[in-house]
Amino acid sequence: MKSIIFKSIIGGSMLALFLLSACKPKGMQTAVQGDAALKAYVAPGQYDEFYNFVSGGFSGQMSVYGLPSGRLFRVIPVFSVDPEKGWGYSEETKPMLNTSHGFVPWDDLHHPALSTTDGIHDGKWAFGNANNTPRIARIDLTTFRTNEIIEIPNSGGNHSSPFITENTEYVVAGTRFSVPMDGKTDVPIESYKENFKGTVSFISVNKDNGRMNIAFQILLPGVNFDLARAGKAKSHGWFFFSCYNSEQANTLLEVNASQKDKDFVMAVNWKKAEEYIAAGKGVKKAVRYAHNVFDESTHTATSEIKTEVLVLDPKDLPGMVYFMPCPKSPHGCDTDPTGEYIVGSGKLAAVIPVFSFTKILAAIDQKNFETEYEGIPVLNYDAVLHGEVTKPGLGPLHTEFDDNGYAYTSFFVSSEIVKWKISDLTVVDRVPTYYSIGHLCVPGGPTKKPWGKYVIAYNKITKDRYLPTGPELAQSAQLYSIEGDKMKLLLDFPTIGEPHYAEAIPAELIKPKSVKIFKLEDNKHPYAALGEKQARVERKGNEVHVYMSSIRSHFVPDNIEGIRMGDQVYFHVTNLEQDWDVPHGFAIKGASNSELLIMPGETQTLLWKPDRIGVFPMYCTDFCSALHQEMQGYIRVSPAASNQPLTFSTGGKKDKPAQ
Amino acid sequence: MPFFILMAVLSSLFIGCSGGVKKEIPPVDISKLSENQPEVHGTLVEDKDIVLNNPLNQDWVSSGKNIYELKCLACHRLNEERLVGPGWAGVTKTRKPAWIINMITNVDVMLETDEEAQKLLEQCLVRMPNQNISAEESRHILEFMFHNDGQK
Ligand SMILES: [Cu+2]
Q1: Neighbour tally for A44: CB within 10 Å
Q2: Closest chain A CA to residue B36
């Protein structure tokens, strides 16, 4: 016991020294060249060339930036409530944040992934993962809104996701924490090796509407899954996952999970898994998870709890899962555009191992196994290796690819991006980042057809880089040109939350499909007021439903009386505008949730429970016209026992509801 | 570092400094910048494009009324009262059919080019929204306006 503690102290202090000395890279004075500003400059009235979908990390949201300008366009609420847009506050969006644990208002979004057809970005959907309470979200790129969230059972720390196959057949979700499952859940943590298991989940995606479904899970040894990439082209049908903690430690992982020289990259033949499922080899297990879907015609989300998942156990199903040794605590796992090369990256490794898919198939064919790990064959390292990039830098993390056969790897510890040639594994260029880069992004980098042009660094630390803003500084990304032989720094731009990973896609693939309004004729919300004539107030017991309409520059009704203490008042507000970019807001004094922000043609609902007797102002929060400030009204709340009849009006003529 | 970036921006915007040789860079032409982003508008109709019905087409009247209730009533009353926009009573007597149709389907162009439309904006101070009404739908609304003005 003593010796473990002693080792960990040494390990910790050595790491700290390492980090300190690596904090400031050399050469920053000469990093920016004369024409950099012009290359990142998008003149007023002109558009950016790429959309950059960036994870908001611990903010739980996804953000959209323009490239090359670095301008922030939008923050899309995904896993965290967002009062700005009423996300998770309006009655229609609350079901989106439902889970088997109930309403969960926050999460940690690490990886955006854009849908592909034939291995190329198709501009339909963006997916994102929730690390904390494992979930996968799908964002519709015509509306830039989260349309679906599915919870992942048998998972803890959904880090290894969402990565997608060539035609978006599947989105995967690999668990970071292995956990006890199968009802055997109240077990000693010390019994980790015996009772804890890992899973990777394959979520199918409907080609037409994007609807997700957990097709199957693979039951795996209790290791940690970190990242993943689908095979493509020749390796289509396979999926690769990086794993660490093959030691199966459950405490002080910084020391105890770094004992072995090599952990694994796991190769999954998902076509084989499909064959096993077709042959009835899957086992249905009882679980509980939420599946939430937003319907754009009713403008309403529904949440359903599902109770079953299909599980495949590779111990009984040979040929489906293999391990490949990978030095040392593998983090990144990236497939090159041809699908032939799989690049592993050990956080603590001094080399970058590059595996060859052709050699993997040959090794499997020849049963060239080093050993077995809990019943799963471990392929011979030398047999599957294309080669190692030697002396690349310190702490390789992630690799992206360009359109010319080059790879770009981020180095956390030495704070740099290193460019190397895939064919002969030679390093050809390196450029400092400021500082401690995590992921990086090349437009189209994970696809069969990278667009190249830029590499963007997403950094963990920005010391000295921006004006100080208290103990925490701006989160940051950096844009580099990769058009010439040498990478060139063009721009620093701050981001929201932690800019963990990102993907970039040409604007032309999304811009023409953007939804401008929701058509009133298609509004199927059960409480919509389709035209002012339908605006009214109805009482059902202690529920009061206000069918309210909004247009520049008034609400109907804008005066309501006869609300009583103890009532639950539902304001269903329909925005009657049919013009692009004219949302209306709705806020009421003392409301304990948030405002509403209602898009043209949409209906949204705010639940208000008055807490005192009085007259309460309400108003539009989105500056909509010269008479925006006039867009307001009053709600009168009387005592519970009051006989004040329910009335409502706009322009003085009182209407009484039919009772 | 910010100083370096500032220098880069300044030098490239005003005088390109490379190797000590000064080069004049022409000022940015703003109209050029927006050249590739033309706004898309429908074409304005003329009176000769519109065939009037006598008697009125009752199907169009009721279709026009439905569209009015969904998309116009919020701002226009059927009497003379001005709400956000002017009341519709008498509108077919004071405005030509083409002018009405153009206001419905091409309001942005009208507010830019038509004097009468501009006068209305000065009175109402709210730009009439583009309510995404098709040419056919606007013709039905016109029919309903004739009906509202007592025509059979
Ligand atoms: Cu408003």
Answers
A1: 8
A2: A46
